[in-house]
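Before the break, one more example. Copy the sequence into your notebook; we will annotate it together after we see the structure.
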Amino acid sequence: MIDLSPKMTEALNQQISYEGYASSFYLALAYWCDIQALQGCKKFFLRQSDEERMHMLKLYEYMSEAGVQPMTPALPQPPIKYKSIQEAFHKVFEQERSVTAAIHNLLKLSYEENDFNTQNFLQWYVDEQREEEAVIRTILDRIKVIGEGGQSLYYIDKEVDKINIQVVAAEKTVGGV
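Here is what the structure looks like once it is written out:
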């Protein structure tokens, strides 16, 4: 049986909130991209939104297996306006970095509490965040190379679409998310 301390329960509930916000954040970004006619970026962010929701549901399931009622958080409204796709991806990187920090704090707490089940459970999130940050860094690098000229949005959208296709293919190959 998994035995979660009150402190760990509170921290996991907070992580549910972070993952739920991330899902909403990506959903809002997808439809900002839709209005900008960036369909490749829209697809990327819709997949990201679904993935973050799945991350949230994994936390719900883990807590439920421990006999703890997970809390369903009220979520703040994510931003819905950006100056550029470049700004949007920089905000995405900040968002992913904050989620990574939260996962690391959860893992630190699990070590402090000798909570081996939660340590093991969280390792998947550590690996997932490393992959998420790497994908966003790749996109930011490509955006930097493409620049901000007249046709840059077209090429950025195509590059993000290609990366999305590659990530989906890799996930199917490895049996990931």
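DSSP finds five helices and no strands in the chain. The chain has one domain: 6-71+81-174. Try to locate both features in your own notes.
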